[in-house]
Amino acid sequence: MSTVVRRSAGAIFWGLTLVTLGALLLAHNLGYPITIWPHIVRYWPALLIGWGLLKFVDFYRFRRVGDNRPLFSGGEVALLILVIFAGSAITTAANVSPEIGHIFEMGDIDLWDITGDNYTYEQRVEQQDVRAGSEIEIVNWYGNIEVRPADTDRIVVEVVKTLRASDRSEADRMDRDFVFSIKDSGSRYTVMSNRDEFGSPGSFRQRYKSSLMVQVPKRSALKLQNRNGRIFLQDLTGSQNVVNRYGDIEIRNITGPVQIENRNGTVTVMDVTEALTITNRYANTTVKNIGGDLRIETRNGSVDIEDVKGNASIENAYAPINARNVEGNVTISGRNNSVELEHIQGDIRSDSSYQNVKITDARGAVTVTSRNGDLRLTLDRPPQKDIEITSRYGTVVLELPSSSAFNVDARTEYGNVYSDFDGIRVIDSRREKSLSGETGQGGPRIAITLRNGDIRLEKRG
Fold first, then answer.
1. What range does the domain containing 372 cover?
2. Do 282 and 302 contact (CB within 8 A), yes or no?
3. Would residue 244 count as lying in a domain?
4. In the Cβ-directed half-sphere of 75, how many Cα atoms lie within 13 Å?
5. Residues 179-188: pLDDT tens digits?
6. Residue 64 burial (CB < 10 Å; 0-12/13-18/19+)?
7. Which of 62, 96, 130 is the last residue of a domain?
């Protein structure tokens, strides 16, 4: 009598996983712009979900035919533990340092692509008598871009090409087929290679890497487009628009507004006289000395801002937000990130979920909505505007000058309340504990609603 051997669906699943991963690596080596690291960091739990669903299939399939084998073999248990630990480790590492994915890059060599050798070539392109205040577009899909002001009204492009080829003769042919130029269309000047003319990199563009050192007239409105490489911009006057995907961006000393879009690289901006807008995703953002409004949208990367003359709006999901010395209003939308604010002259509105919030020397109204995390609000001066705090799980501490005047309505369902101020009553009912009353004359309103945690009003000085 023959015996039917029934294979676990998990074996098929891991076979398909290996085929998919191998196909992605092969496509990357062939030059397709596939970045593997961020997807592994973010989506690795999908492997567990898929595997678990297939195990349900195995369970009902084996039970229907009377097969009572264990659902998980010893090897599968070990593999499950390995996947969970490895996935958790890379996610934690990416949250601590989003740039850790760069370990796969060493200089001009990408460790995902180990075929061939690198050959270096140089090219210089120049455009004289550039119209003052012109719009200049610079496109470079793979490589660094550095832009500085020229001493005259001209555009000078110094190109260093790094070509990956099997031998010198192939590299020479690639060099002849890879040329940068400056095109004058009347409304703008465009710096671009012949391999970037059609709006997106070709399948083998990754083998043609190029670093650009560009000089432009000081009064120039720039539009920079890059994909894989670092961008540095300094000492220009005019509107600056920078788009990158997988590389750091550093911008300094700009007279005019700046707009930045990045995806997987740090963004550092210093000394901009007008408004600044930043969109980033998987890396840290640092901003200092902005003369206008600031808007930052990011996801996995810390945000540090300092010295902003206008309003500041920050959206982040999974990393700390720190802001100091903001003259306008501060609006924060967070999810799983700590918030630390200091010396804010305008109103504060902060919405976060699962981390602590610390606010020091707030001058305007304060509205905080939180879920899991302690909140400490310390004022150097008596409050002049209303304070409203809503939270669920955490301790709320307000440290106020002893001369403060305010009326308070603070309630917690499962916690204790305490006040250093005269005139504030402590009420203990069966449903909740609360602080109620007024100290001083004509002060603002303080409202605190808490579910699980203590509320403390403490005197400072």
1. 338-461
2. no
3. no
4. 4
5. 999 999 888 9
6. exposed
7. 96
